[in-house]
Structures are given as C-alpha cells and as structure tokens.
Amino acid sequence: MALFGKKKGLVGLDIGSSAIKAVELKSGGKGGAEWQLVNIGVESLPPEAIVDGAIMDSGAVIDAIQRVFSANKIKTGDVGTSVSGNAVIVKKISLPQMSPEELAESIHWEAEQYIPFDIQDVAIDYEVIEGSGAGGNMDVLLVAVKKDKVADYTSAISQAGKSCAIVDVDVFSLQNCYEVNYGVDPGRVVGLLNVGASIMNINILKGSTSIFNRDIAVGGNQYTDAIQKDLNLSFDQAEALKKGGRVEGASPESLHPILQAVSENIALEIQKTFDFFKATSSEDRIDRIFLSGGTSKVHGLRDLLADRFDAGVEILNPFNSITYNPRDFDPDFIAEIGPSAAIAVGLACRKVGDR
C-alpha cells in the first residue's frame, strides 16, 4: 500500500533514526530469480537527527541521502520511502458493502470517526481486505499519516536531489520484504518484529493479510543509553560496545547484565502486544516470529525471545530469495547488513505507480 505514487523501478530508502539504508533491485535475475540486488548502501546519522520518527536535523538527513547515493554510485533518482511512529494510524474498519466508487466518495467521512487528528491534516489511503467481513459488511484497512510528517520526509528527499515516488508505512514495507523472501502460507500466523534504534514495528500476518500491527517506541537506543549510564561511557563508546566492539576499561562481562535487562524490557513490550492481539482477535496463536532491524543483532536478544515465546524466533533474511553476484557484493557484508535492510528491501520491491 502506498500513500501516493507514478510504473518503473525505484530505490528503497529507509530513513531510520540511526542510519539511512538504500537498496536497489531489478526484477528477473539470473536463473529466473524474481529479484536481483543492484545496489545497497548504508550511511550513519548523528544521534538526535531523527527522534521518534520525526526529522530534527534535516541538513544531516539530506547530507546522508546524498552520501549513500554517491558512495554507491546509485543512478536511479526515483525513491520509495516509508514512515512509522505516532504520526501513523493503521486501523481495520468494518463498513457496509459498497461499490469501489461509493467507497472512494465516503472514505474520508468514515475515516473521520477513527482518526484522532483533524482529517484535513492527514493523507489517507485504504484497501479492501478480500474475503473478509461478516453480515453484509466489508473490512477495510485504513491508513492515515500526518501530512506534515510526509512533507518532512519528501522535502528532505527532494532537497537531496531525488524524487519521492512512493511513501509507504514501515509495517507494510516489512510485510512486503517478508512475502518476497518467504512467500505466503494462507493458514499461517506470523509475527514480524523489526527493532530499529528508536522504534519497534510489529506486524502480525495471517497469510497475506495484516491482522494486527503496532509501532512501539523502544529499540536499540535503550541499550546504548543503559551502557552509557551504567559504565559511564560516551555515546560512541557505548554504541561500539553494544555492537560487539572493544572499549578500554569496559569488560564484556560487565555488559551482559545490562544487555539482558534491556532485552527483558523489550520482551515485555512484545508480550503485552501479543497478549492484546490475542485478546482482541479471533486468532489465539502465532506460529512463527521473524526478527529484523539493526537491534536484532544485539547479543542474547533472539535467544531470550526464543525462550519467552513458543513460536520459535528466526532472524529474517531480506536476501533469502534475492540473488546477488558475490563478485559485486561481499557475502559477509550482505550477512552483516541483512537484518537492518528489511524495510529498504521491502520498499525496493515496489514499482513507481504502485498502490
């Protein structure tokens, strides 16, 4: 689902709170593979450049977008990006059966009842969920994003000299990445967890339908903050330690209890979300959990979640079904960057003009 858009390839640009990830794919790779990697790059952002999904330092963001394009010699100028956080509302609503034309006319009025913002301040998109609805009704997935949030992102992209063709929502980009790489099993309930630096996106799918999603303001920055405070280190030292680096005067042993405590907190947020999902949905199970995002690599997080949830936890591989030439891309680099690239890959699978 895209909030607006024009049909040709584009660069998936994930503007995250710690880094900008760019992915370019082409369809129909070698051996009949559906997608092949053309380009991938990542550029770090300074802390506080983006806070809770809002751009605070547009100069730093514009600069990083230009660097990721030039450093990786990316020529394509059309990009797709996505947004998340508290400026995004995704709701499933039930409406009386109506024609597509009637729905298009009445959706704004219907949406007004479900959106806590002034309807004039949001961009709206919607999709009818096929084969759903009871008693003559139909279920519609309604998406609303504050226009000023969209404008901040599209403005940074255009100031960096690129054209924003699609604005999506993180949870749907994540779903797109999963489906391209793992396919769709109609009866299976899958939990997708993308844990970034400041936001965790949760999307629960049954088959190809998103039946529950939520963004939660927790992520890798909490590990960095805790390490900084407990071990009296700078942000950069704490960040290096979190990523498995060595810092003088800080032993790996002192790190484990700090990481464990933050992981417990993240697991608790996931547990509460899953409990709420089960209480408000007709599904009472999750068959498998896929973990992505840069924070998924934090030591011990996956194991803790696997112990906590009986669904089993797997690290999502955004290149599971996407081919690449190992002469062009170092497999170790692809494996290292993989978990962070899920949303950018999901965006790169889109075409200009998609809904």
The helicity comes to 25-40%
The tally of beta strands, per DSSP, is 16
Shape, per Cα inertia axes: globular
Give the amount of beta strand, in percent: 25-35%
CATH superfamily of the largest domain: ATPase, nucleotide binding domain
The level 1 CATH classification of the largest domain is: Alpha Beta
Number of domains: 2
Class derived from helix and strand content? alpha/beta
- Whole-Å distance between the termini? 5 Å
Order of helices and strands: EEEEEHEEHEEHEHEEEHHHEHEEHH
Give me the number of helical elements: 10
User: What ranges have pLDDT less than 50 throughout 5 or more consecutive residues?
Assistant: 1-7
CATH fold-level label of the largest domain: Nucleotidyltransferase, domain 5
Strand order of the largest sheet: 10-6-1-2-3-16
Mean pLDDT: 91
Rg calculated over all Cα atoms: 20 Å
Write the layout of secondary structure elements.
Elements (H helix, E strand, L loop, with lengths): L10 E5 L3 E9 L7 E10 L5 E2 L2 E2 L2 H14 L6 E6 L4 E9 L3 H13 L9 E7 L8 E10 H13 L3 E7 H13 L6 E7 L4 E7 L2 E8 L3 H12 L3 H8 L9 H29 L7 E5 L8 H8 L4 E3 L6 E2 L7 H7 L4 H7 L7
Parallel strand pairs: 1-6, 3-16, 6-10, 11-14, 14-15
Antiparallel strand pairs: 1-2, 2-3, 4-5, 7-9, 8-9, 11-12, 12-13
Short description:
With 355 residues, this protein is of the alpha/beta class. 43% of the residues are buried.
Give an account of the 3D structure.
By secondary structure, the protein is an alpha/beta fold. The protein has two domains: 1-86 and 147-181 and 321-355, 2-Layer Sandwich (Nucleotidyltransferase, domain 5); 184-316, Nucleotidyltransferase, domain 5 (2-Layer Sandwich). It contains ten helices and 16 strands. The chain has helices at residues 58-71, 100-112, 147-159, 170-182, 220-231, 235-242, 252-280, 301-308, 331-337, 342-348, and strands at residues 11-15, 19-27, 35-44, 50-51, 54-55, 78-83, 88-96, 122-128, 137-146, 163-169, 189-195, 200-206, 209-216, 288-292, 313-315, 322-323. A hairpin with a 4-residue loop joins β11 (189-195) and β12 (200-206). α1 packs across α3 (147-159), α4 (170-182) packs across α10 (342-348) and α5 (220-231) crosses α6. It starts with 10 loop residues before the first strand and ends in a 7-residue tail after the last helix. The relative contact order is 0.18. Residues 1-7 have low confidence and may be disordered.
